[in-house]
Amino acid sequence: MKITAIEAIPFAIPYKKPLKFASGEVHTAEHVLVRVHTDDGPVGVAEAPPRPFTYGETQASITAVIDKVFAPQLTGLAPTAREAVHARLNRTVGNPTAKSAVDMALWDIIGQSLGISVTELLGGFTDRMRVSHMVGFAPPEQMVAEAQRIRDTYGITTFKVKVGRRPFMLDVEACRALREGLGDDVELYIDGNRGWTASESARALRAMDGLDLTLAEELCPADDVMGRRWLVSHTDIPFVADESATRPGEVTRELLSGSATAISIKTARTGFTYSQRVHHLCEGLGVEAVMGNQIDGQIGTLCTAVFGSAYELTARRAGELSNFLDMSDDLLAEPLRIEDGTLRVRESAGLGIELDPEKLARYRQDT
Ligand SMILES: [Mg+2]
């Protein structure tokens, strides 16, 4: 079986409410659907969600690099030849979500051709993940109301709270309100997106002592090298590296240098092949891993769940699988459903992605 063509289809789906960043607002998810065609029949599908403010890719850059650089280099290779595929992709630095979507589509083809799901192909630990929901910045009472609504509607009992504001007491008060409003039965952890210094982080964690937080992610920048190591050595909960450790080499460096004690794995930026390598590093070095979200749509969320449920280490924790709830629609013929706080992978071969042709026609931007 040979790769005959790779399509990169830009599509846009409005969010139910705008996503707010420090630098502005985003009203629409502008993602890229990747389809890898073969001479034997199977078509692999995956989704690339560009994050211009984090990784520098845009919808236009992803379609261009796939059309002009990756597709010509990969056409004619076997979908199973992942080492050869990545040797060619890696001639180009950067472009993590474009590479990852191609990689995941190849695994989809391999699963389809073997008649087994990609979860079974990867590791086959289980067929589902518990779901963690991210609570964004808002007045504390709104954050509590949102978390209660999500718990009552979807049965989700794990919440990741965005922190990193100044003064840090804003976030301390929000976390206290969430613990009081949700009770002791929910799991709470925090993600600072590098918003604090090491000493602010230490003071904030001290102020939140007693709230039973289970993880602290990227509270201060990894580039504040000594400060970050000092903070991690003084913190008694796992300290997660996310954007500071996206490739196996970075994961090794951050863990061995004492700048992190847990890793966030995002299939949107490491596909399945490199997520596997990051997972194996975490297992070998003996640290925890959490499946993170790159504001994925439903296809990307399914890919995260497919990978996370394949391994015991990643299935142990709730995965961040609920961001798609903010989108007004999606491309899947059968939408994802979160029930009892759980998202199940599909039983069909490969990734089990079936697109709704009418929705694809409505949201694609290249016709
Ligand atoms: Mg993060």
Automatic annotation (TrEMBL):
What protein family is recorded?
Answer: Belongs to the mandelate racemase/muconate lactonizing enzyme family.
Cite the Mandelate racemase/muconate lactonizing enzyme C-terminal domain residue spans from the record: 140-238
- Protein name, per record: Mandelate racemase/muconate lactonizing enzyme family protein
- Which of UniProt's keywords are assigned here? Isomerase, Metal-binding
Please indicate if the UniProt record lists Metal-binding as a keyword: yes
Q: Which PANTHER family match?
A: O-SUCCINYLBENZOATE SYNTHASE (PTHR48073:SF2), O-SUCCINYLBENZOATE SYNTHASE-RELATED (PTHR48073)
Keyword Transit peptide (UniProt):
no
| InterPro entries for this protein | Enolase-like_C_sf (IPR036849), Enolase-like_N (IPR029017), Enolase_C-like (IPR029065), Mandel_Rmase/mucon_lact_enz_CS (IPR018110), Mandelate_racemase_C (IPR013342), Mandelate_racemase_N_dom (IPR013341), Muconate_cycloisomerase_anti (IPR034613)
The UniProt entry, under Gene3D superfamilies, shows: Enolase-like C-terminal domain (3.20.20.120), Enolase-like, N-terminal domain (3.30.390.10)
For this protein, the record's CDD domains field holds: MLE_like
Under Pfam families, the record lists:
MR_MLE_C (PF13378), MR_MLE_N (PF02746)
* Superkingdom as given in the UniProt entry: Bacteria
